[in-house]
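Blinded run. Sample ID left blank on purpose so nobody reads anything into the name before looking at the predicted structure. Input follows.
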Amino acid sequence: MFDEVVYEPWTSNGERFYEDEMLENLLRVQPDVLITELDRITPKVLNG
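Blinded prediction complete.
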């Protein structure tokens, strides 16, 4: 269904993405889908 999967688990470094980091990462990757376990997804991230 998807050509590429980007897997960046928080368990690799023990830290979650914070709002600005998440937004920056999403703008860089431009995913079709976001699956998250620990990160807070704020309106700023959703609208970014």
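Unblinding after everyone has recorded impressions. Residues 19-29 form the longest helix (11 residues).
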